[in-house]
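Dear colleague,

Thank you for sharing your sequence with our group. We've completed the structure prediction you requested, and as agreed, I am returning the results in plain text so they can be pasted directly into your records. Please verify that the sequence below matches your submission; if there's any discrepancy, let me know and we will rerun it promptly.
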Amino acid sequence: MTMSALFLLSLLHCSANAFDMSLSTNLAVYWGQNSYGATNPSDTANWQQPISFYCQDDYVDIFPIAFLDEFNSTGGLPSINLANTCSTSDNGAFPGTALPNCTFLASDIQTCQNAGKIVTISLGGATGGADFTDDAEGEAFAQIIWDLFLGGTSTTRPFGDAVLDGIDMDIEGGSQTGFTAFLTALRQLMDSGDKSYYITAAPQCPYPDAYIGDTLNAVPFDAVFVQFYNNYCGLTNYNNSNDWNFGTWDNWAKTVSPNPNVKVFIGAPASSSAAGSGYVNSSTIAIIAQQTMSEYSSFGGVMLWDMSQAYANNRYDAAVKEALTGGSGGGGGGTTTTAPATSTTSPTTTSTTNPTTTSTIATTTTTAGSGSCAGIAAWQSDVAYVGGDQVTYNGDLWTAKWWTYDDLPGGPAGVWVDEGACTSAATAKIPSPSPIGDAQVTFGIPSYPAVVTPMPNVL
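Please find the predicted structure tokens below.
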């Protein structure tokens, strides 16, 4: 093969793996806080692994590193908290600063980037000291971030020669003073660079967000990872149009955001222990993601908190990615129909990038209708229905008020309207079922050296 042919093949390979923010199938998963380790301190085998460990397949597209938690710490520089992975006590700090020396992560980050993923630094977190006193301080901080993590130079770069792909703003307290000045100055630096850089944010779902809402309206963000959990507008209220408000965020994206092409992600907990409320199993989030994708052009994908929780929860990330891509998520995994995922506590010690999948279908049905209900399918527990769909159950005809999944006709959810016995006259509307099950993917997890007690932050 000629050198020119080899060069062309290399270009095609890079193009195939290139990150594309304009897609509606991207998956963002936070890494850095070892959330699973914080809630499962005795299950050290499933604690957070190095970031490159999670880049061996095509499931995750965006890795925000969590967190840069203090804007102004020792020596006038920020500090970062990476839980069990890197800390000043274990890895030392750059002289005169509170920045841990995490340069050993440079090759890990570059491995992920070479696989077509982007890696960013997330600023803030639930307990972060992320604020400015004025615009001048915000503008100065832009240069600091550029020099420490992006395209600038410094002798105190925490990740060495790894050049991150942008920043994420996870601001959950304080004032918005200086944010617009900071991001405007940072965007100017990014535009002068020799690669693409991205600015994202992680607002909570109540609109407008209390801590970054004004900034979202003033600065052209590339994507927002809306936290649809720990709030009334969370995923568990998807079938309540008074609470679920993705449409509000879609309207913001199209009519308010300075970037009309901004992407809106559904932010979700990756397991029941990852958040106080809002977790839904992978079957349910698959349906929610697919329906939202079909309804809103601003939809960009799903964000998960966090990687350690997703991996221990039967590869929740893999199930979500497969739902987004229709089964072409990569890495060999696939969705299956089985019970909701639970935490894995006995991993193997053999590393593999080709997961095995198991598939079982557990379906609850009732006898099909007769008479005026002829042709109407019996209610099924593993089928998603939308408003107006009709089913038969216990000899009656039932009509769905709105989207529903696994809610029994006549049950406490109140989702179904009883139209009467099947012997009565009724106009039948046959649903288009969407059976989707949980993914149950088994991966081997390699042995790693013992790690320290995690110091978690939360999203």
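Summary note from our side: Residues 1-16, 330-371, 424-456 have pLDDT under 50 and may be disordered.

Kind regards,
the structure core
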